[in-house]
Design goal:
Elements: E1 22-23, E2 32-36, E3 39-41, E4 44-49, E5 55-60, E6 64-65, E7 68-78, E8 84-90, E9 115-121, E10 132-137, E11 147-148, E12 162-169, E13 172-179, E14 182-192, H1 195-199, E15 203-211, E16 218-228, E17 232-233, E18 238-240, E19 244-246, E20 250-255, E21 262-266, E22 277-278, E23 283-285, E24 289-296, E25 300-301, E26 306-312
Parallel strand pairs: 17-25, 19-26
Antiparallel strand pairs: 1-16, 2-5, 3-4, 4-16, 5-15, 6-15, 7-12, 7-16, 8-9, 8-15, 9-10, 10-11, 12-13, 13-14, 18-20, 20-23, 21-22, 21-24, 24-26
């Protein structure tokens, strides 16, 4: 597995990896389906080649585990005017392809259904800005909502080789981006998304899409290493009532959709483990409290940690 993006890595994956795309030393045609303008440029995956009105996609031919994975890739955008690209996980099949331009080879009519995509957007079509990211589902136009990368120092137009990492542990998806020429330019965010439900299965096809319109760019993925992991992940615990501000003490119930799951929790803001207090009855919250919960079940990987903050007025 490649080293972490920064010294303060967000996660450590504690289990062995399964099979997945391994192009850490550069791309070959083996194992990939190329669609639209996608092709190889030496050992790089070239999505768009600097011409206008292109749509591209390239997907690994074998479905991978959609519940638990990391995807680590480097990319370079040259003469980057428009429009951008996505990393996409979907269940239409390896020939899936959306529309050109601001649809980034992902959205449009039709877009790629049964899918989740993270975009790297270099042109503002609908107010999303010319240096943004965001998450989109089911082939929706990848415009807004969007997150501006500029405050982090990340500039998709810089021409530098940038490195991105996705870390998914259902239902939390973490995105990190760093400029390999200047590691102080670093961005991280998290999304909550149930990828297996959205894509329609516990396995799915993973790859990249890209697009240009009236303006263009050369968009290349330089390396890619995608590791998927065996095992189902326990569902994220839920709280009732939901987090928020209340005028009096609350009795908070915690539930989990995983069969026969045991829930462990903390009330002091620390991360729960299987050695924390076991949930058996509703928890009395009489002062402002951060409640965290973890679900553990036989045959499942531990859930992500659910968090709910209560303010008692």
């Amino acid at each position: 597995m490649p080293p972490s993006l920064v010294s303060s890595a967000l996660y450590t994956i504690p289990v062995g990896a399964g099979q997945g795309p391994d192009y850490l030393n550069g791309f070959t045609a083996q194992g990939l389906t190329f669609n639209g303008s996608a092709t190889l440029n030496g050992t790089r995956l070239r999505l768009t080649d600097g011409n206008d009105d292109e749509a591209a996609s390239a997907f690994f031919n074998t479905p991978v585990n959609a519940q638990f994975f990391t995807s680590d890739f480097t990319f370079q955008l040259t003469n980057a005017q428009a429009d951008g690209f996505t990393i996409c996980i979907q269940n239409q099949g390896p020939a899936a392809l959306g529309s050109e331009g601001g649809d980034l080879g992902y959205g449009g009519s039709p877009g790629i259904g049964n899918s989740v995509a993270i975009k790297f957007d270099i042109y503002s079509n609908e107010g999303e800005g010319a240096n943004s990211t965001g998450i989109y589902t089911d082939g929706a136009d990848p415009y807004v909502p969007a997150i501006d990368l500029t405050p982090s120092g990340i500039d998709l137009h810089s021409g530098d080789v940038l490195r991105a990492r996705l870390i998914y542990y259902n239902p939390v998806l973490t995105l990190e981006i760093v400029d390999t020429a200047n590691s102080t330019e670093y961005f991280a965010t998290q999304f909550t998304i149930d990828i297996p439900t959205t894509t329609g299965g516990n396995t799915a096809y993973v790859g990249f899409t890209g697009g240009t319109g009236g303006l263009s760019a050369i968009q290349e993925i330089v390396t890619w290493d995608h590791l998927s992991y065996a095992g189902n992940v326990a569902a994220l615990p839920s709280f009732n009532p939901a987090a928020g501000a209340y005028t009096g003490a609350q009795q908070v119930s915690i539930a989990d959709a995983t069969p026969s799951a045991t829930i462990y929790y903390t009330t002091d803001g620390t991360t729960p483990t299987a050695s924390s207090t076991q949930y058996t009855v509703p928890i009395a919250i009489s002062a402002s409290t951060t409640l965290k919960a973890l679900a553990v079940a036989t045959g499942y990987l531990h859930s992500s940690v659910a968090t709910a903050s209560y303010t008692i007025q």
